C-alpha cells in the first residue's frame, strides 16, 4: 500500500468513525460498515453482518444484500461455514479458495456453485443471546492481503461497538421502564392502603417473594387492577 493510499484510507476511516458516531440506529450503522468494506477492501464483492439469535434464528444486515443473505442462509442450513465459526468462535476466519476448503464439506461446494470463491469473516460480538460476524466474500480466489484483515478488523470493531451500545441502550430503556412501573405501583399502594413509600415497596416485595413472581410483574398487576 503506497503512502497516498494509506493517507486516503486514514481519511476515509476517520470519516467513517464520525459517521458511525452519529445518531443512527443499529441496522444503519451495520449497513454502513458493510458498505465501507466494499469500498475500502480490494476484492470484496459482497459484504454483510450476520446476527445469530436463539433457536437458530439469524438476520443479515443490510437486508437488501441478497447474495450475502443467501450465503448466510446456507451456513445456518448446514450449520457450518466461516461466518458461523467467526460469530461463535474464532476472531478471524479466512478462506482463500472455497474450491480447496475442507473445513466445511457442505458449505464450501455451495459457495463455489454460486460463484463465490473466497471469504473473510470477523467476530463481532457474543452474548448468551446473540452472536455476530462481519463477513466479506469475493468472486476471485487468493485475493486477501494483510491490509484486508487489518481494515476488516477496524470495521468489525466499529460494528461491535455499535452492537454493544445498542444493547446497553436497550438495557437502560428496560431499567427505566421497570423503575417507572414499580414507582407507579408504589403510588397506587400508598394511596389505596394509606402507607408511606417504604411500606408500599415492602408490600410489593413481600408479594413478589411469596408468589415467586418478579417484582416488576407484581407492579404491573397492581397497575392493571388499580380501578
From TrEMBL:
Q: Which UniProt keywords apply?
A: Kinase, Transcription, Transcription regulation, Transferase
- ANTAR domain spans which residues? 162-223
Q: Does the keyword Kinase apply?
A: yes
Molecular function in Gene Ontology: kinase activity; RNA binding
InterPro entries, sorted: ANTAR, CheY-like_superfamily, GAF, GAF-like_dom_sf, GAF_ANTAR, WH-like_DNA-bd_sf
* Any Pfam family the entry gives: GAF_2
According to the lineage, what is the superkingdom?
Answer: Bacteria
Q: Which Gene3D superfamilies match?
A: 3.30.450.40, Winged helix-like DNA-binding domain superfamily/Winged helix DNA-binding domain (1.10.10.10)
What is the official name of this protein in its record?
A: ANTAR domain-containing protein
Amino acid at each position: 500500500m503506497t503512502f497516498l493510499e494509506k493517507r486516503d484510507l486514514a481519511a476515509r476511516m476517520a470519516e467513517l468513525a464520525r459517521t458511525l458516531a452519529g445518531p443512527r440506529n443499529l441496522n444503519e450503522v451495520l449497513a454502513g460498515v458493510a458498505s465501507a468494506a466494499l469500498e475500502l477492501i480490494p476484492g470484496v464483492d459482497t459484504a454483510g453482518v450476520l446476527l445469530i439469535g436463539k433457536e437458530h434464528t439469524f438476520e443479515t444486515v443490510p437486508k437488501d444484500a441478497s447474495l450475502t443473505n443467501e450465503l448466510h442462509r446456507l451456513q445456518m442450513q448446514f450449520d457450518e461455514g466461516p461466518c458461523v465459526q467467526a460469530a461463535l468462535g474464532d476472531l478471524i476466519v479466512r478462506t482463500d479458495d472455497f474450491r480447496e476448503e475442507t473445513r466445511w464439506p457442505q458449505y464450501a461446494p455451495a459457495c463455489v456453485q454460486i460463484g463465490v470463491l473466497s471469504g473473510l469473516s470477523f467476530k463481532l460480538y457474543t452474548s448468551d443471546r446473540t452472536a455476530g460476524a462481519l463477513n466479506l466474500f469475493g468472486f476471485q480466489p487468493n485475493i486477501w492481503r494483510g491490509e484486508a484483515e487489518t481494515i476488516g478488523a477496524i470495521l468489525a470493531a466499529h460494528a461491535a461497538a455499535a452492537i454493544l451500545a445498542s444493547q446497553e441502550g436497550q438495557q437502560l430503556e428496560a431499567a427505566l421502564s421497570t423503575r417507572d412501573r414499580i414507582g407507579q405501583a408504589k403510588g397506587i399502594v400508598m394511596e389505596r392502603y394509606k402507607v408511606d413509600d417504604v411500606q408500599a415497596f415492602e408490600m410489593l416485595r413481600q408479594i413478589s417473594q411469596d408468589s415467586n413472581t418478579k417484582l416488576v410483574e407484581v407492579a404491573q398487576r397492581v397497575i392493571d387492577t388499580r380501578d
